[in-house]
């Protein structure tokens, strides 16, 4: 479990694993995404009757493959890392995670001093195709979730915490939960699998929202997504690896 609290925007050195405005880095087993299915917003995607969740999605800006373009136009190449990383400078901050140094999926949060809400995204390469998703059996996934809250683009609280998911491929269901920390409340998720994506309902205390995401890698070896609430302080992005 990791917890981070920030009082003022840190003038931290750019993490070595993050490159701004460059071509994608990577690991040994990355593949090109089967298509660019970026969504302008993951909000509202939930329930069992909707369409397949996109390969990449962002509440603002644009996410695709291993890149996130922020609302202010800053482009970030999201290199593979173990755990999570934070880069801050020039009035903007990005926190993101990868499912290992050679992982397919990326997920994270971005804010700036001129943009007083936090934006969330998930994306990746090697997106699992619908015909590659197992049709029988169950699996558990373990990973991280990132949540960053800001009201003025400078003073923030949040960090990262553990996330776990149980998937029943035969029943096409998924259930997940994040671990409560001093800075992050528990978020519980329950939904259905459609194609190689998933979506459903999310809850955090009395707050209700939606979550959605996608599988990545051979036989759905990874997943990533976002949980979005009307009260944005409960929003988060997550990624996990099949155990």
From TrEMBL:
Domain Transferrin-binding protein B C-lobe/N-lobe beta-barrel: 133-242
Domain of life, per lineage: Bacteria
UniProt-listed SUPFAM superfamilies: OMPA-like (SSF56925)
PROSITE patterns reported for this sequence: PROKAR_LIPOPROTEIN
Positions of the UniProt region annotated as Disordered: 25-64
Biased composition annotated in UniProt, kind: Low complexity: 34-43
One Pfam family cited in the UniProt record for this chain: TbpB_B_D
UniProt cross-references to Gene3D superfamilies, sorted A to Z: 2.40.160.90
Bilayer-spanning residue ranges: none
Name listed for the protein in its UniProt record: Transferrin-binding protein-like solute binding protein
């Amino acid at each position: 479990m990791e917890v981070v609290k920030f009082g003022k925007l840190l003038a931290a050195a750019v993490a070595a694993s993050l490159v701004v405005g460059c071509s994608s880095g990577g690991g040994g087993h990355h593949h090109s995404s089967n298509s660019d299915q970026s969504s302008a917003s993951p909000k509202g995607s939930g329930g069992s009757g909707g369409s397949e969740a996109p390969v990449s999605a962002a509440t603002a800006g644009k996410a695709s493959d291993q890149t996130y373009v922020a609302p202010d136009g800053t482009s970030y190449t999201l290199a593979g890392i173990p755990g999570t990383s934070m880069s801050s400078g020039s009035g903007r901050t990005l926190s993101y995670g990868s499912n290992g140094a050679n992982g397919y999926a990326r997920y994270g949060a971005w804010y700036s001093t001129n943009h007083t809400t936090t934006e969330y995204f998930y994306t990746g390469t090697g997106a699992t195709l619908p015909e590659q998703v197992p049709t029988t059996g169950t699996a558990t996934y373990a990973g991280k979730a990132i949540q960053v809250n800001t009201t003025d683009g400078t003073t923030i609280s949040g960090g990262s915490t553990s996330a776990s998911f149980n998937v029943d491929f035969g029943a096409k269901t998924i259930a997940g939960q994040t671990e409560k920390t001093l800075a992050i409340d528990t978020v519980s998720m329950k939904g259905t699998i459609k194609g190689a994506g998933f979506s459903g309902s999310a809850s955090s205390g009395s707050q209700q929202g939606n979550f959605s995401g996608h599988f990545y890698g051979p036989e759905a070896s990874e997943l990533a997504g976002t949980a979005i609430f009307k009260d944005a302080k409960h929003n988060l992005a997550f990624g996990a690896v099949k155990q």
